[in-house]
Amino acid sequence: MQTFNKPVPPVVGSPPADGKVGTYRWRIVTLLFFATTINYLDRQVISLLKDDYLEPLFGWTETDYANVVIAFQIAYAAGMLGAGWLIDKIGTKLGYALVLIVWSVAAILHAFARSTFGFVAARALLGVSEAGNFPAAIKTTAEWFPKKERALATGVFNSGTNIGAVVAPLTVPALAAAMGWEWAFIITGAIGFFWLIFWFLYYDIPTRQKRLTQPELEYITRDDAREEALTNTDKVSWFRLLTFRQTWAFIVGKFLTDPVWWFYLFWLPSFLNKEYGMTKTDLAIPIAVVYTMTTFGSVLGGWLSGYFINKGWPVYRARKTAMLAYALLVVPVVTAQALGALSPWYAVLIIGLAASAHQAWSANIFTLVSDMFPKKAIASVVGLGGMAGAIGGILIAKAAGVLLDYYKGLGSIETGYYIMFFICGSAYLLAWCIMHLLAPRQQQVSV
User: Fold this and answer.
1) pLDDT one-digit tens code per residue, 190-199
2) What domain count does the chain have?
3) Which of 154, 163, 225, 422 has the most CB atoms around it within 10 Å of its CB?
4) CA–CA gap between residue 51 and residue 49 (Å, rounded)
């Protein structure tokens, strides 16, 4: 790869004096939001049907179900790597459409599985294809937003993960009860094809989108001249990307913090049941409260760093300050057990705060990729970090299972949860410190 050292031109394309830039780019974020919502809706269907339908019908043991879950996680980790490369290679419009078609088909195929192996195969296909959502969405925000708005845009579309987590338990059991468990998979899987209509109707890269006004195009591409001066047009290999400290900063950040989110997703219902005796019916409102809080955290988290940038702060300082604030907001989760002894709702709210801070952190750590890398490499870097985060998710699930089983056998499962919440509360500060050492000023790489 050749490195260019030609002078960097000044930033161009400032918004017009009257402030009327246009809002078409936010229509694109709306598309990303719904795609992310569909992504999380499709992946949650099986967990909502397990106890009442699939386990009795197929005679699943907990080990059988664990194998189905692990198949998704392993495929998701591998898919992150491949999806990032694919989207950088063929472009966002076609790449996003392709992965969504495959994951929608995979979601529907669950309805035709007639054995544990059939579900493992469908789940693996779903995992490898759903992994393409975040590399595609992050690359899209880099194409459609200047740096000062990217974290907010990421926070908006990332809030779809929380909406999906709330919508799924409200709709999937009702569909299964009214039409049969197979139709719950078929209907939720088919929603993705409806989204594709709007994707092809409204999406193209800004320079090809005829609906975009010239002032908004100039505003969106204001950072492009600087990027073009730092990069050539050659594709960047994974091995080349792994030589940059900035890549490792993102990988380490995702590896240490993504598992915390997976822990909340997989273990929060069990924690509330084991510690406070909440039944399946009791859990609906507390879980809805947690994910509603995370929705606000995702959007506000993306807004804060943009606010600092608008105040004249350097981009790296704005991102790092915001992420440090979110890392500190996670720390109180170590008190979840102690507060829960006073009232279960204190535990719910403190976990909700920590989960909200995670989503705020996530909006910014994803945006770091577009700060530090040219557009041609963004999806690949997101894929590398996403794979690391998925591997971390597998490890924390295994660790939590072993740890909680051990202390449960001793009659002290609350000790196991103390340890897990301590890990969750400290992970972000550790990640922030390592990322600071690896990329203190988050300079854009020259490739």
Assistant:
1) 999 999 999 9
2) 1
3) 154
4) 6
